[in-house]
Amino acid sequence: MAAATKSSGDASTHVLPPPLEWAQRKDKVWITVTLENCRDPKHELKGNTFYFRGKGGTDNTDHEVTLELYGDIDPEIFFTLIKKDQNASYWPRLTKESKKFHFIKTDFNRWRDEDDSDQEEKEDFNLDEMMNSMGGLNGGADFGAAEEEQDSDDEDLPDLQ
Predict the structure, then answer these.
(1) What is the DSSP letter of 140?
(2) Residue 30 CA neighbour count, 13 Å, CB half
(3) Rounded to whole angstroms, how far apart are CA atoms 37 and 15?
(4) CA-to-CA distance for 36 and 20, rounded, in angstroms?
(5) How many alpha carbons lie under 13 Å from residue 108 in its C-beta half-sphere?
(6) Cα–Cα–Cα angle for 22, 28, 29, rounded to 5 degrees
């Protein structure tokens, strides 16, 4: 990863990398730039390199990052990065470098482990809809007001001493 430095006259300032999240499937990689109030974002994707620059965040400062990705991607698709070898195993990390970058986080909303089912989950997964179809929580079964049923095993048990 190349850190960016801006110089204005004699003073030089370090440009921060933007916060990132990433997730993957066997054939795809997602990178989400989570920079609030981002203005003038610029991005570029070549071979196995991801570049981003934008101004934003709570301090409204410049952010820039260039990452050498772990493997090659198909640059024709940006938002979902297609791995060049779609039968490849899962990447152990997003970048070639094995060091941990503080600004890259795992996107657990999209993450799925390598040994999970290959069947893609619906992108519009809705927990309320699932619970309703199972008869629970939203107008389905009322667990709090159910009458207590006696189990035949509970009849006339002796008190514990």
Answers:
(1) S
(2) 15
(3) 17
(4) 11
(5) 0
(6) 20
Distance CA 15, CA 57 (A): 12
DSSP helix/strand/coil, 154:
helix
Which of 19-28, 37-46, 107-116, 136-145 bottoms out in mean pLDDT, i.e. has the lowest? 136-145
Pair of tokens at residue 16:
């921060």
User: Edge-to-edge, what's the strand order for the sheet holding 39-46?
Assistant: 39-46, 49-56, 61-68
17: left (phi over 0), alpha (psi -120 to 50) or beta: beta
Q: What is the pLDDT of residues 87-117, one digit of tens each?
A: 778 888 889 999 989 988 888 887 777 777 5
Q: What is the pLDDT of residues 131-145, one digit of tens each?
A: 555 554 444 444 444
Can you tell me which residue has the tokens 């509970």? 154
